[in-house]
């Protein structure tokens, strides 16, 4: 039987008494969390151990409470910060907001978050929630992470590629901070020299060493690794037998129900289950695990539609989507209590497994799938597949139902299928393209990538492939050093190396404005809105923007038309007003308004980056030839040629591929194209495709396409 905490369960939402003030409610809630009773002990352990591993059930209060405990215990003296890393942006944002609320401060004061393209911290921020990838970037500017007294690597069980690299890097940084300044450290000379370069204007450095600081030590760095899974051994062994403590969770029994037969359509099965629960079960919110934004948005619509067929008094069901790409004001809706009498049905991706805890959940619906990205370095191909979730994930999912009261979990597959699931998910570092991470390691002064102390080593094939790719893109010299300036510039831009390369080249081709827009759009999830039920209508709407040259130019015209539309409307006034008008325009044109808004944001930020790098943002106007030539020069590693049978051959890997049906070139089938993504779903598809002249490849990437 799962362990139970003593006393009545309390939920800040469901059991709140109306006469409680917000303040009292939060204090009560904090006191009721399992972690509250071990505050003193945890602080002692942190004082005693430089590396501490904390394992605890999801919802026990690790992420929101521990940083506050450390703050109160004085770990932020002398302006030092506590950094908490998350593999997922959404967790960094929602948790920081929650903690700011608990501390009764404005976000960005004592508590803030920082994620790519969105930084809310200020110089008074002491508890800084951020993505693991962002902390890696910070290490480029401050190789000793000297502003931090404690770094908490949260959700370590997730084993995201950035977390894995951080685990290794923090080990080195911790050792380096114990050495007197001026002595050579493992994180290397290189890093310190780079620091000198970027801080030249502030002056007080010499050969990478703070002048007058020789012999002095930096303050030590405490390292805390937090994980939800029970297997702390792997982390403890990695850190030479580091101490691990377990925080008891609070878990009520969860009834697990399976289907009798396999379900052929899990979306439909999920819908049926939602309504069954709604009509027959006791009050309590529902959490449904879906695989992505498309699925979530379509279930949201289907729930709304089916509600219309119910009698008025039964319509009190409120579908609420939550996924990473959702704007954060909308993400917060998942945490708010439903209006009286209503039942929330939260439609979530696997982010709701461990990284965020939504109060009030009593029923979990688990179709048993997850979207997994894998990368085959030999073929240079990514696949994004909907695959069965692992046992560990499935157990986490059902656990979400028993946080506050005994719950139920509906698994939409027969029991015998459960036994067939993998125990846990493979670490991301073993199944992703490593070029970005290797570029960053190089920029940190780590030369020997194969010998680097990874917790799980990626295959040497994957490393070699990534090094070769970086060399082709001009980021690395022949002997594997960072190329000056392109390699440095590429490591500084918060983008995939190939996009950074495209921006650097666009600066030379005088089409930087166009490339900034294109890269921004390629960075967000699909700019078009393509609902299952309205495929034809959506296609017609897309045709309006279609360029015969391809998708990149089509995206440009979506972005520009939306700009022109806004200008024409001459919308002055509040952001809200603009949002409303834009939403309407998006809806009519089958453009995804969330994605477009996000793309605008990203555009602004990378524009700032390149301006800081000294680039002049010029436009090629209507000369789309130059723009396409620039695409060819940048994406030459991703070129494909049409074959006699109408399929395409990817020139780099030799794979036989097809243009994706969503591409504007799906039917036109030009002779030669560049693409953005090579993906295996039901077939091997290339996505985001633009026509080029095959002769350009030899002309613009002669080092790669030698003419015989
Ligand atoms: P852990 O990290 O151990 O999984 P958290 O610290 O994230 O736990 O959450 C502890 C509790 O705080 C949750 O059970 C939930 O009730 C509450 N909580 C967390 N985030 C929010 C939020 N954004 N809004 C309301 N309650 C929240
Ligand atoms: Mg947590």
UniProtKB/TrEMBL annotation:
Domain Helicase ATP-binding stretches: 43-248
Protein origin, superkingdom? Eukaryota
Which InterPro entries does this entry report, sorted A to Z?
AAA+_ATPase, DEAD-box_helicase_OB_fold, DEAD/DEAH_box_helicase_dom, Helicase-assoc_dom, Helicase_ATP-bd, Helicase_C-like, P-loop_NTPase
Cite the Helicase C-terminal domain residue spans from the record. 273-445
Family matches, as PROSITE patterns:
HELICASE_ATP_BIND_1, HELICASE_CTER
Q: Which UniProt keywords apply?
A: ATP-binding, Helicase, Hydrolase, mRNA processing, mRNA splicing, Nucleotide-binding, Spliceosome
Q: Does the keyword ATP-binding apply?
A: yes
**What is the reaction catalyzed?**
ATP + H2O = ADP + phosphate + H(+)
| Enzyme class (EC, first level) | hydrolase
Q: What is its EC number?
A: 3.6.4.13
Task: Report whether Hydrolase shows up as a keyword of the record.
Answer: yes
Q: Outline the segment boundaries, as ranges, of region: Disordered.
A: 1-21
Compositionally biased region (Polar residues)? 9-21
What is the designated name of this protein? RNA helicase
- What species is this protein from? Camelina sativa (False flax)
This protein's gene is called: LOC104776647
């Amino acid at each position: 039987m799962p362990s139970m905490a003593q006393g009545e369960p309390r939920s800040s939402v469901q059991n709140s008494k109306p006469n409680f003030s917000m303040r009292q409610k939060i204090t009560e809630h904090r006191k009721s969390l399992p972690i509250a009773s071990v505050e003193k002990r945890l602080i002692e352990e942190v004082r005693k151990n430089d590396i501490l591993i904390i394992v605890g059930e999801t919802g026990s209060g690790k992420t929101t409470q521990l940083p506050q405990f450390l703050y109160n215990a004085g770990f932020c003296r002398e302006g030092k910060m506590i950094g908490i890393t998350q593999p997922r942006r959404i967790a960094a944002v929602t948790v920081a907001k929650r903690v700011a609320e608990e501390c009764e401060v404005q976000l960005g004061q004592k508590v803030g978050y920082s994620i790519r393209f969105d930084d809310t911290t200020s110089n008074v921020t002491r508890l800084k929630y951020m993505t693991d990838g962002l902390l890696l970037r910070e290490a480029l500017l401050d190789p000793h992470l000297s502003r931090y007294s404690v770094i908490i690597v949260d959700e370590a069980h997730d084993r995201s590629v950035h977390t894995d690299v951080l685990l290794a890097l923090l080990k080195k940084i911790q050792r380096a901070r114990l050495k007197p300044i001026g002595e050579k450290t493992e994180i290397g000379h290189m890093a310190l020299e780079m620091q000198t370069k970027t801080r030249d204007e502030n002056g007080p450095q010499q050969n990478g060493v703070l002048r007058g600081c020789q012999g002095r030590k930096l303050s030590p760095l405490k390292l805390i690794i937090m994980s939800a899974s029970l297997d702390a051994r792997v982390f403890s062994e990695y850190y030479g037998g580091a101490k691990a403590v377990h925080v008891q969770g609070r878990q009520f029994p969860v009834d697990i129900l399976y289907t009798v037969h396999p379900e052929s359509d899990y979306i439909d099965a999920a819908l049926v289950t939602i309504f069954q629960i709604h009509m027959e079960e006791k009050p309590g919110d529902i959490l449904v695990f879906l695989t992505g934004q498309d699925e979530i948005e379509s279930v949201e619509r289907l729930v709304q539609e089916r509600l219309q067929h119910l009698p008025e008094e039964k319509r009190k069901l409120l579908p609420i989507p939550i996924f990473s790409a959702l704007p954060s004001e909308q993400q917060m809706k998942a945490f708010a209590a439903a209006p009286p009498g209503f039942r929330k049905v939260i439609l979530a991706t696997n982010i709701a497994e461990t990284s965020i805890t939504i109060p009030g959940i009593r029923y979990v619906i688990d179709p048993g799938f997850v979207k997994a990205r894998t990368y085959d370095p030999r073929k240079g191909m990514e696949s994004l597949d909907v695959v069965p979730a692992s046992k560990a994930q499935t157990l986490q999912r059902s656990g979400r139902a028993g946080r506050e009261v005994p719950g139920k979990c509906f698994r939409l597959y027969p029991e015998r299928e459960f036994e067939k699931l993998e125990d846990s998910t493979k670490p991301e570092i073993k199944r992703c393209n490593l070029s970005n991470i290797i570029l960053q390691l190089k920029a940190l002064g780590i030369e020997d990538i194969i010998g680097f102390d990874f917790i799980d080593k990626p295959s040497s094939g994957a490393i070699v492939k990534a090094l070769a790719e970086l060399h082709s893109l001009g980021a690395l010299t022949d002997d594997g050093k960072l190329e000056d300036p392109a390699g440095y510039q590429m490591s500084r831009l918060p983008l995939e190396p190939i996009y950074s390369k495209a921006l650097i080249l666009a600066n030379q081709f005088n089409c930087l404005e166009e490339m900034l827009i294109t890269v921004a759009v390629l960075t967000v999830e699909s700019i078009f809105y393509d609902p299952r039920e309205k495929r034809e209508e959506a296609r017609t709407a897309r045709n309006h923007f279609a360029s015969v040259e391809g998708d990149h130019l089509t995206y440009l015209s979506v972005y520009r038309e939306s700009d022109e539309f806004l200008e024409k409307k001459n919308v002055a006034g509040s952001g809200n007003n603009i949002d409303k008008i834009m939403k309407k325009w998006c809806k009519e044109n089958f453009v995804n308004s969330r994605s477009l808004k996000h793309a605008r944001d990203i555009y602004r930020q990378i524009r700032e980056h390149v301006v800081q790098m000294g680039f002049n943002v010029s436009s090629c106007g209507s000369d789309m030839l130059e723009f396409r030539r620039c695409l060819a020069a940048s994406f030459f590693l991703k070129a494909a040629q049409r074959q006699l049978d109408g399929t395409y051959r990817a020139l780099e890997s030799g794979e036989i591929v097809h243009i994706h049906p969503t591409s504007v070139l799906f039917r036109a089938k030009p002779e030669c194209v560049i693409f953005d993504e090579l993906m295996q779903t039901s077939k091997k598809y290339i996505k985001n495709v633009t026509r080029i002249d095959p002769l350009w490849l030899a002309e613009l990437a002669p080092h790669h396409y030698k003419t015989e």
